[in-house]
Specification:
With 214 residues, the protein is mainly alpha-helical. It has 7 helices and 7 strands. The chain starts with 7 loop residues before the first strand and ends with a helix. InterPro entries: PqiA-like, PqiA-PqiB_transport.
Length: 214
């Protein structure tokens, strides 16, 4: 039994539960608490999520190929990508910084993209298996998404510390801009995906079975 079958709808922003008037069953209702437009399901959720996921993959390529930061010293300029930066910190013994950058810049974005692609494909194929696991995976994307900016914060802190020293200058490279775009777009993709679609597949399957047995 779904909430919509009982005439109930929840706000995607503040999660206020509202009784859906009959005259609004096919229209748009605004939340009485926050004023946000309320929909039974997020409009074009799958299409928008796919578009954002593809955009994230495209931007993730230059984010890894272009310099994440540039170090200017008396000896010259050294530009490091994400991977070369990880190797540099490993060689200098800064294992914690290397681990933070590797996890935040490599593991987190790739994991998030893989989960979103899996959820999109499973919903489009009408899969009714592992519904609770897929729900947990969606929650995981929201949790790890909050840590995606750690790498950018590390670069910002290093820039501030080095500028304070006055002997060396560190600047954010072009890769940092693309990586920031990847972080923002993947967060939007996770927000755009409607997890209720996972459970809709189960309801539709049960209706087909009941109709076949009738």
């Amino acid at each position: 039994m779904r909430a919509i079958e009982q005439g109930l709808i929840s706000c995607h922003l503040c999660h206020q539960l509202v009784t859906l008037p009959k005259e609004h069953r096919d229209g748009v209702l605004h939340c009485p608490r926050c004023g946000e437009p309320m929909h039974i399901r997020k409009p074009y959720s799958i299409q928008y999520t796919w578009a954002l996921v593809i955009a994230s993959i495209i931007f993730y390529i230059p984010a890894n190929l272009l310099p994440m930061m540039e170090v200017h010293t008396f000896a010259g300029t050294q530009a490091d990508t994400i991977l070369s930066g990880v190797l540099y910190f490993l060689e200098t013994g800064s294992y914690l910084i290397a681990a933070v950058i590797f996890i935040a810049s490599i593991i987190v974005p790739i994991t998030k993209l893989i989960i979103l692609i899996y959820l999109l494909i499973s919903v489009q194929r009408g899969s009714v298996k592992n519904k609770r696991r897929r729900k947990k995976l969606y929650v995981l994307t929201e949790i790890i998404g909050k840590w995606s900016m750690v790498d950018v914060y590390v670069v910002a802190i290093m820039i501030a510390l080095v500028h304070f020293g006055g002997l060396t200058e560190i600047k954010a490279g072009e890769g940092a801009t693309y990586f920031l775009l990847v972080v923002v777009i993947t967060m939007l993709a996770a927000m755009q995906f409607d997890p209720k679609l996972i459970w809709d597949m189960q309801i539709d399957e049960e209706k087909r079975r009941n109709a076949a047995n009738a």
